[in-house]
Amino acid sequence: MATPLERWVDKIAKITKPDKIYWCDGSEEEARRLVEIGIKEEKIVGTPIFRELNQKTFPNSYYHRSHPTDVARTEHLTFVCHPDKETAGANNNWMDPKEAKEKMTKLSDGCMRGRTMYVLPYMMGHPQSPYAKACIQLTDVSYVAVSMRIMTRMSRYSIAKIGDSENFVKGIHSVGDFDPEKRFVMHFPDEQLVWSIGSGYGGNALLGKKCFSLRIASWLGKQEGWIAEHMVIMGIQDPSGKTTYITAALPSACGKTNLAMLESALPGYKIWTLGDDIAWLNVGSDGRLWAINPETGFFGVAPGTSMKTNPNMMRTLLKGTFFPTLFTNTALNADTNEPWWEGIDGECPANLIDWLGNKYDPASGKKAAHPNSRFTVSVSQCPNLSKEFDNPRGVPISAILFGGRRAHVVPLVTESKSWQQGVLLGALMGSETTAAASHKEGVLRRDPMAMLPFCGYNMGDYFSHWLDIGRKMTRPPKIFSINWFRTDDQGKFIWPGFGDNIRVFKWIIDRVNKNVDARNTPIGYLPNISDLDLKGLSMSKENIERLFIVKSDEWLKEAEAAEVFFGKFGSRIPKALTEELRSLKAKLQGC
Ligand code: GTP
Ligand code: SPV
Ligand code: MN
Predict the structure, then answer these.
(1) Do residues 206 and 143 make contact, with C-beta atoms less than 8 angstroms apart?
(2) Which atom of ligand 1 is nearest to the CA of 309?
(3) Above 90 in pLDDT, residue 348?
(4) How far is the CA of 45 from the centre of ligand 1 (A)?
(5) Taking CA atoms, which of 71, 257, 451, 576 is between 20 and 30 Å from 469?
(6) What is the C-alpha to C-alpha distance for residues 59 and 337, in angstroms, rounded to an integer?
(7) Which residue's alpha carbon is nearest to atom 5 within ligand 2?
């Protein structure tokens, strides 16, 4: 007698019509075979899926070039299909679930013909964690199968865990014919189903990542009393040996991976990495907030990664274990067969092939690597992986940071005065857009809690849920806002960032432990500059002060922009938040 899972696989195969169906077991041997298939058999518009890189310098690393139109998340083609449009909210594209299913069934008719359907069983979260979820994704490309093995805990365990249940997390993925007009990422939250066609790119195709672990999980969290967030999780060990755990939400390509792997510029401090993209947060029986990272890999932005900016990531990439490491849409050094990107250490090689496969001409003014080119690598290769990484319970969080890419207005660090004011600080967040999604770069958009593209339900209800979570805790984390990206009159970043961000963490830990005072402003507490450890930094006093300027007129404009944004959600915005905003405006007007 077939299980519900087997029946479902069968049903999808009848629609997609693959030549073969292959159930993965997540083994090392299988990963090698899949890479081999990607080198020798499978192709994307005539180009093999994988190319072996220099195995001496980049052990067990493979190169992948995507379809040229398929290089980032496509937010305009991403839909959240709740039965009721209001539940999806103004933050999501919506389609009626029945209509969306019919559309996807039609588009998927025969889409796997001539290909293999890989059945990927995986867990999000440690199998022993009470918060872990057993999932199945179907895909028709080895690149996605290999990537999912890096990013998740893939094994037959999930199949056993699902057993006879109808209630498992489902993903259907096919690259289709890569036609950008027929590229859809559809979410059906009530069925825990994601159906994606036409794209092989990370966030559109690795369905355990943003699609399940944020969009669908945020909806599950709303119903079950927890939150799924676009956050780094890290431990900061101070010179006394104590480790403080924090999470930080920053929009895509705004510094999470770099933060998670930070190498301290201050002696005596050490960072322990737990996650660089997604956190699931639960209120513990002790009244604190506990975080787990449901993933097991990093899908990180390559450009800008070097021994200078992110040495721990370079070490992770070069380590080489039985998990393959993938480089997607970077450039390629034709002489050494190594991946290359803007910002990596050393000179630009003489014989470079750009991400499109053409000989690179530095005089062209174009970039050799795509700005959103990425690596996919296992956390097990990270030299500073926290020993708590596999703790099924997670780690207790002392501070939550909200950040964005803001050239002006937002100070380096601000502490909120309460959970409620912190929720407003998060809800006020805006950020200048990046290459991680296909839209115009550098445009300011509201991006509350860095979740605008990832919140799987009405953002007004999401804010209410955040306030509810606050009420459930007796020992809530403190909430801060951060901004590494303030610029001077020449448009240059004022703050050195990267390893020097530890200086901001030091102040945050001092505040958590009530070791230092702070300056009261309408937007929250700001550091007294004398309390910041700036030893060894060559910054002018004027520039340091510029990082902390709070102008009432600029902040009034922020508050008004937030009001316009909140307006899209009507009465779904909780009253407590509207009142908090009104009180902020009154304080700013009084200045
Ligand atoms: P996603 O994977 O898309 O969610 O991105 P992310 O938030 O993990 O961003 P990531 O750490 O990959 O950084 C993206 C870009 O921001 C890179 O080009 C970095 O060089 C740059 N960046 C990261 N941290 C800092 C910083 O502290 N200061 C400055 N100026 N740039 C930074
Ligand atoms: C992001 O865009 O925030 C990423 C990459 O982390 S993706 O998996 O495509 O979402
Ligand atoms: Mn991300």
Answers:
(1) no
(2) 20
(3) yes
(4) 31
(5) 257
(6) 12
(7) 203
User: What is the atom index within ligand 2 of the atom nearest the CA of 210?
Assistant: 10
The closest residue, in CA terms, to atom 1 on ligand 2 is 252
Distance 358 CA to ligand 2 centre (A): 26
Residues within 5 A (CB) of ion ligand 3: 252, 277
- Contact (CB, 8 A) for 493 and 253: no
The fraction of the chain above a pLDDT of 70, given in percent, is 100
* Per-residue model confidence as pLDDT tens digits over 315-339: 999 998 878 999 999 999 999 999 9
Cα 346 to averaged position of ligand 2 atoms, centre (Å): 27
Structure confidence by residue, pLDDT tens digits, 100-145: 999 999 999 999 999 999 999 999 999 999 999 999 999 999 999 9
| Nearest atom in ligand 1 to 497's CA | 27
Site residues for ligand 1, CB cut-off 6 Å: 250, 252-258, 276-277, 300-301, 303-304, 309, 436, 484-485, 493, 497-498, 501
Structural domains present in the chain: 4-49+74-225 (3.40.449.10), 229-296+388-589 (3.90.228.20), 297-381 (2.170.8.10)
Of all residues in the chain, the percent with pLDDT exceeding 90 is: 95
CA 80, chain centre distance (Å): 18
Token pair recorded at residue 591: 């200045």
> Which among 537, 577, 269 has a CA at the least distance from the CA of 423?
577
Residue 36's pLDDT band, with cuts at 50, 70 and 90, is very high
* Ligand 2 atom closest to 204 (CA): 9
Q: Name the band, by pLDDT with cuts 50, 70 and 90, for residue 259.
A: very high
User: Which positions are catalytic?
Assistant: 254
Centre of ligand 1 from the C-alpha of residue 305, in Å: 9
Judged by average pLDDT, the poorest of 276-280, 487-491, 531-535 is 487-491
Q: Roughly what angle, to the nearest 10 degrees, separates helices 4-16 and 97-108? A: 60
- pLDDT, residue 547, reads 98
